[in-house]
Write a structure and sequence with these properties.
36% helix, Endonuclease, Chain A, alpha/beta, 21 strands, 15 helices, 2 domains, two-stranded parallel sheet
Amino acid sequence: MSASMKSDVAYEKMADVESSLLKPHKYSRCILVITSLIAVVLLLFSLQTFLIPSIITSGLNKNPPIMQTCTDTCRLVLLESIPVGMEFNSSVGHPSIYQAWRSLLSEAQSSLDIASFYWTLTNEDTKTQEPTANQGEEILQELVQISGKISVRIAVNTPTDKQPHHDIQQLINAGANVRDVNLRDLTSGVLHTKFWVVDKKHVYIGSANMDWRSLTQVKELGAVIYDCKCLAEDLEKIFEAYWFLGDSKIIPSPWPSQYTTAYNKDTPMQLAINGTDSGVYLSSSPPSLCAEGRTSDLQAILSVISDAQQFVCIAVMNYLPTMEFTSFKRYWADIDTELRRVAFERKIHVRLLISCWDSTSPLMFPFLRSLASVQDSKSNLDIQVKIFIVPSSASQKKIPFARVNHNKYMVTDRIAYIGTSNWSGDYFVNTAGSALVVNQTTTSSSESTVREQLQAVFERDWDSSYSTPLNQDSNLEQICAM
């Protein structure tokens, strides 16, 4: 008999006692005493078997995961994909995402887990004959080769009928385990995340999709972290959540304890990155996919902006204070309001570097102009916006969905944030994304910090010939036609 049933039995027996008390009986006093004692015993028994274990279990469930000291000597390398034909008059540069992916594949010994939006790594996928697709095709072949040798798991957004399936099918045939994650049914969003976990100790996270164009025809930014088991294990929990959703088709509430984390914006992981003491955590979106302890991606962004002491620099493809993909129009100003607040209340200097390409929504620009108008030297108000254009030759313009700055990062005077989401409401309310947040306010190494390196990338792009200031008089047709 279950605890709840025992409790019901006790309740029924107490009701019987009350009923007998209303009936006259020659042994009423004895019966009263005896039945009362029985009722008390039964009640105590039911409390012991039902309520007390429930209280104990409840208390255990609320205990946060134990924070452990991370002794790993983690090495983080910023990565970029610079589109073919783009050249910067700058010494700032980083290894390519292609190089990092090949390095990770060559080092993989036991497992590779990839969270991805879609797969188009070949010319066959894009119906093109572009020589620069060779890097993506090489990556796919190396993935095929290792899929029969080590554990390869891929969580991918459920493809539409129009999307190619060749890459995924090749990997399945080679031995990879693939699960479609149907977030459209679960949250009305998509799985937009882009990260790798290799051997549960190496990590890649960034803006690049599993797409050959992300290696040679689209400007991307990401990071690879080597020999960092602590961080890899925490990112693996986010992957396992996707893996669970691909099989269960429901979102648990709350998430089971194995998905919880001790590391977030309030209690970041303390570890050494490139010899510098760092506070690090991983954020995730949407909130319904965040297990206990996990900071949502929106809260991470707002926290980083609020933490800034001098400046906030943002480089994202899309910036819209609206819900971008819903059938109804809805204003969504969480990030926009915070940028205006810190600029006004704390005199933080804010700069946004936003992309323009064939798929850009014209609706972005009225909102960006509004932000750029927050300028007043007397009041020390300073929000600036520039539009970044990736130039294209006649042949490059024929490549579908290419030649764009796809970056998704933010850097302040204190923190580096590297994400996988564009900045409009949908990406934080119902679409799955993730981000790496690194705080290196205390320098203990002669090597430049991750934050300093990311700031240098932003400054290079901001000052380059590919960036044009946006103001009230800007001619967008001229700017976006570069």
